[in-house]
Amino acid sequence: MSTIRYDKIRTVETGFNSAALNMAIDEALIESVGEVPILRIYGWRPAAVSIGYFQSMNEEVDITKCREIGVDIVRRLTGGGAVLHEYELTYSFISRRYPQNIVESYKWICDAIVISINRLGLDASFVPLNDIVIAGKKVSGNAQTRRKGVLLQHGTILLGVNVSKMFSVLKVPSEKLRDKIIKDVKERVTSLAGTTYDDMATSLKTSFAAKFEAKLISDTLSTEEISHARWLAERKYSNNEWNLRR
Amino acid sequence: MRKAHNIYKSEKLIRIMLEYDEIENTISSITISGDFFLYPEEALEILEANLVGKRLEKETLKQEIDNFLKDIEVYGFNSTSLTEAIVGCKT
């Protein structure tokens, strides 16, 4: 198990943004992170579907339906599955120092998420590779990438679930199995209903500080980070060339 | 040239879009997508490129994929399941 500790963690709360800007900020922070790791906390407005790096937008998402109901679409830098982001808190953790072993590094960061949920009086646990569950039901999905010597892990902590809306924008592998798939998801996914975004954010920050024995440095995005993120949002994460790549 | 696709359930879902030469039984183009994790991410495009021109048969493909996976970390499929997913496009 990793013994990496941090003296400080820079915390940045970027509020609620479009899908393109949210993913652009993550990439901008990969570029800008120094020796002090960054914990970013954010939400999505409007609601958005993100797909994994290796997924096909056309195969996974009903793009027309998303346009009709005002749901953003974006492809992530990270692998994994398609997610409807609406009632949740999303975090990103970006660091130059991390366990090289991938399974270990997921656990290393997810432990802080588990602590943050359990601080609210619940009984969450980590399930490799990348899930956090309560009573066997998924409450948080996480994904990471490593670029230029930097690890970025981002993930969702569900504060509510709307499975019907989820499957109005996500395609299913087999229409014949649609009802069964929806039933399965309802049985396998849960949320921290009743927990507010602000309470979750506070618990998350406290838990990262405790897990990594670090002092939190509350900060905002720098002018350069905002400028770079806006450029990436416009030139990359809003474009079909990126979003429809596979 | 024939187009084909397959959806294969391994630990994760693998989707294959394939064009192949029916006479030579070789792959002309291939796209592998799904909800898996692969590190480094860009390596998948190298695998796809390496598979072009290869015979669409299990032994050849599995050997190529095994070689590729030596230096790559994948969560969600292995060489056997990916081979099955690709060959399954023909059925």
**Helix segment tally of chain A:** 9
Q: How would you classify the quaternary structure?
A: heterodimer
| Large-scale geometry of chain A | globular
- As a percent range, the share of strand residues of chain A is 25-35%
Mean pLDDT across every amino acid position of chain A:
96
Straight-line N-to-C gap of chain A:
36 Å
Greatest contact between two chains: A-B, 20 and 18 residues
Percent range for helical residues of chain B?
Answer: 25-40%
Round the Cα radius of gyration of chain A to an integer and report it. 17 Å
Q: What's the quick description here?
A:
The complex is a heterodimer of chains A (246) and B (91). Chain A has 246 residues and is of the alpha/beta class.
Could you please describe the fold and organization of this structure?
The complex is a heterodimer of chains A (about 250) and B (about 90). By secondary structure, chain A is α/β, with parallel strands linked by helices. Chain A has a single domain (about 10-245), classed as Bira Bifunctional Protein, Domain 2 (BirA Bifunctional Protein, domain 2, 2-Layer Sandwich), CATH 3.30.930. Helices cover about 40% and strands about 30% of the residues of chain A. Chain A has nine helices and eleven strands. In chain A, helix 4 (about 100-120) packs across helix 7 (about 195-210). The N and C termini of chain A lie far apart (about 35 Å). Chain B is of the alpha+beta class and about 90 residues long. Chain B has a three-stranded antiparallel beta sheet. In chain B, a hairpin with a 3-residue loop joins strand 1 (about 1-10) and strand 2 (about 15-20). The two termini of chain B are about 15 Å apart. In chain B, about 35% of the residues are buried. The mean pLDDT of chain B is about 95. The interface of A and B includes residues 78, 102, 145 and 146 of A.
Element layout with pairings:
The complex is a heterodimer of chains A (246) and B (91).
Chain A: E1 8-17, H1 19-32, E2 38-44, E3 48-51, H2 57-60, H3 63-69, E4 72-75, E5 83-85, E6 88-95, H4 102-118, E7 124-127, E8 131-134, E9 137-147, E10 150-158, H5 163-169, H6 178-188, H7 197-211, E11 215-219, H8 223-237, H9 240-243
Parallel strand pairs in A: 1-2, 1-11, 3-4
Antiparallel strand pairs in A: 2-6, 3-5, 6-10, 7-8, 8-9, 9-10
Helix pairs in contact in A: 1-8, 4-7
Chain B: E1 2-9, E2 13-21, E3 26-34, E4 37-39, H1 43-51, H2 58-69, E5 73-75, H3 79-87
Antiparallel strand pairs in B: 1-2, 2-3, 4-5
